[in-house]
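Quick start: load a record and inspect it. Here is EmrB/QacA subfamily drug resistance transporter:
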Amino acid sequence: MSQSINQMEKPPYGIIAILLIGAFISLLNETLLNVALPSIMKDLDVTTSTVQWLSTGYMLVNGIMIPTTAFLIQRYSVRGLFLTAMTLFTAGTILAGASPVFSVLLTARIIQASGAAIMMPLLMNVLLTSFPLEKRGAAMGIFGLVMIFAPAIGPTLSGWLIEHYEWRMLFHLVTPIAAIVLIGSFFLLKDKKEKVEINLDFLSLVLSTIGFGGLLYGFSSAGDKGWDSVEVYGTIIVGAVALILFITRQFKLKTPMLEFRIFKYPMFALSSTISMVITMALFSAMLLMPIYVQTVRGISPLHSGLLMLPGALLMGVMSPITGKLFDKFGARALAVTGLTITAVTTYFFSNLELDTTYTTLITLYTLRMFGMSMVMMPVMTNGLNQLPQRFNPHGTAMNNTLQQVSGAIGSALLVTVMSNRTATHAKELAQDAMSGAGAANATAAGAAQMKEQIGMQAMVQGINDAFAVSVVLVVVALILSLFMKRATPASEDEVIKEKAGREQFAK
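Running the structure step on this input writes:
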């Protein structure tokens, strides 16, 4: 990354602290809005499908911007990139808080997302280049604290704010913090770097935008519109074709926008695969728990958020500890232990009942988060450790991009399983009820009550089936984690030789 950072005798803790705060509020803001969507629908008079664009649009901009961060990190300084990102994020937050109509709010979210997309890869890359290999685990543990804790407390904080204030307060709360970080970074960030003369390939940018954007939009729309919708499978096909063309072009370029040759490093390839599977499984609790708790059980958004808070706090406490354990024992021991705990707790979640106690739900969710805290950062860090330093920007950009895509795929898969299995169970339960004694003599009120009971029971069973799929995903990740080895950086001589060969091929 920046030569000034690499040449420092000790890590630039001031720079890292500023980047951590910026990344924290950008991630927090992303999850704050989810609980507020019903209030925004009512206040701005928009439909469910319309208001979802506040989340979908944010995700799409992230998916489009993140692949370009490898180029941006190599081309520009940490100071320049962070100031640009925070300016965009702060401007978008101020505009969102003052939005009189939905179109202005959506524009504000897109501006926010364009800044937020830069922050996480930038922070991860600074951490990788600032710490020696034997201390990276502890450093990435702090990164994990931000990545996990911020989105985890978002629903609880949002639920409390929505109960006491209007939805605009979500943005008013973040605005002064963002402004302080922006002003502070202007005066405190001092890093400089030699100008790197690399240019962004326009065709690669277009193909990347269509490829990742198409896949993200298609999969994120599947749960709502159904897999038989032209809008769903059409955008997925277009996205897949564009992505294939994008990857093919990267192999032909002298200086690729996103370097796919990093997958030739086995530990990076393995860690990326495990991370994608884990991300898909992680969405089961993030998506299915609120549906079960709020829709089936009728628990308020605030108490729904509070249910997840102990797990979030435990993950926050565990992240730095896990980082130190990674430095001492490596990724495999942590990943196997964590995934075993995750698999067992997810299995118990696949056996929910209409009357499962609140205490049981908190306990299972907290234990599941404890297991997950041992997995994500160690697995990701172990893979990045095998990459030569010059490939760090590409590794961080690739990991963040794959997490976006796998998250969308996981959401679509689990929502589809839940919806289809709920419909199947509803038919089966209705047939059983109709064949029961006295069904024909049931009163209208009794029939309505029975229909509602069947609907709730069918939904619980559908949620259980989706959790069962998540168990399979976690077991797959557990098996893959058995093949992990402690990674060491590849030789720079090998990279130089490969680059020379690529330049010859490009000619």
